[in-house]
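Re: weekly structure request thread

Next one in the queue (312 aa):
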Amino acid sequence: MAAPIQNCKLEIIEVLGMVAKQKMLAVSGLLSGAIVWGLIWYPYRLLGEAGISGALSSLLTYVVAIALGLVLFPTAFARIRLAGWLAILIGITAGWTNLAYVLAVIHGEIMRVLLLFYLSPFWTVIFAHLLLREKPGAAGYGVIAMSLAGAVVMLWRPEFGLPLPQNQAEWLALSAGLMFALSNVLARKAHNLDIQVKSLSIWIGVGLLSLVPILWTPSEAQPLVTLAWSGWLWLLFIGVAIFGVTLTVQYGLSHTPANQAIVIFLFELVVAAISSYFLAGELMTMQEWLGGAMIVAASLFSGKLEQQHNDH
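Done, posted below.
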């Protein structure tokens, strides 16, 4: 009798060990995403200084990711076609998220861009109600109020009137956060799609959306003729980094509760704050820090709401 019990204990220990390892890999994947996206603005800015527009650099770097995906996951493209409209919507929304984010961090102040982006919990509550029929309740409305209050505090300038984003980069950041929220809600609906299909959908979505302004203004591609080899290396490096980090983040999201995932993602703000200070000499005012803290608090609290929803 002792032998079966002992074997059962060993099996339980082995399962717990596998779960712990899976959890560690998932957290590592999310952290890698936070670090990469908190730093990636810098090489994109270097390319911008070399005359490569944000749309063109996005197109070329995501073409690298698409090429790697098609080589390493040859059946994923066919599975996207079978997935139908949901994969297309994920590609479009996530595509705009990534493209708008790149354009915003190239031309805007890094921390203001990121804090506007992290208004996404506000949009998530709305989209979850509209598309998933999840009622926000009193706590959900609290998240909305805190997010909006944080944005008002951060953006308020009496001389400019209404507390709205002040330039194109900040509007792009706001739209990127909105699309990020929508793509996450759509991903909840598409629980049957695997990581490879979702990742390839995102890469193709960014590539197609980035292609539109290039086709509209073909002269944007002219700087490629005189681009130094270091610029081409940056494009290749970013493309490979995007390929890897998209897969690791999708894995992390698949194996981590949403409340923990959003806390880990907020590490991006720390990385961006440090890198923008040392690499771009950007400083934030006390008013911006206060508004940003309110937005971060709303993000953290929205994660708690997700945990409560799962518990019920």
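The radius of gyration is 21 Å. The longest helix spans residues 2-39.
Next request, please.
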